[in-house]
Amino acid sequence: MSYFEKPEHPRTNLASMTVYVFKRDVLVEELKRHAAGSDKPKSFQIYDEILRA
Amino acid sequence: MRKTVAMVFAGGRAEEMSVLTMRRPKAAVIFGGAYRMIDFALTNLANTAAIENVGILTQYRPASLVDHVGIGLPWDFVGTRRGVRFLPPYLGPETSDWYRGTADALYQNIDFLDLHQPDDVLIVSGDHAYNMDYTALLAFTRSTRQRSLSPSRRSRRIRRASESRSSTPKAAS
Predict the structure, then answer these.
(1) What is the DSSP letter of B4?
(2) Binary contact (B113, A23; C-beta < 8 A)
(3) Which residues of B touch A43 (CB under 8 A)?
(4) pTM recorded for the entire structure
């Protein structure tokens, strides 16, 4: 499965509604882990940093 | 019932929407003359029994969105255990920054999650038009977790795989 953010020419008519469910402790742990490991990145996104990591 | 808090992303502006988002975020764009885009998300959440508290993550020109949502009365998010809270970027003693993305918006509002102590966090966009009761999604997610974590189920699966391997006749060489 692959994911493209707003592609100019979509290869399919399937789209993500960006609905996510996380266990709170897992989400908080991941957010803190990524925030601690990064030196103020330009962007900190759920899909790029949390789900795809 | 496991406690779930919803976080709604409502801070974005879309360049491609031109003048529609010149003075308001996408979530506050007018829909059908009387509604705003965020009405879909809030109505979906109001129709999901497990959701009692909602955090709305705002950033770009939130005034019209705040005016529209108010205290969440139209969606019955009012009460001692129910509520809607706007979560804009803030200046603090240690952290002060604009949200640098969806994950950063959540990271800067971990206090909100700690306050409500939910078991699960449901994250939705405030600018999508669709009708959905999230109850089935939450139930499916929990059942999937239970299945994946259940040691007895896992050991049964391993045993079955092992048995099938040992009973499969080997190809003649």
Answers:
(1) E
(2) no
(3) 100-101, 104
(4) 0.83
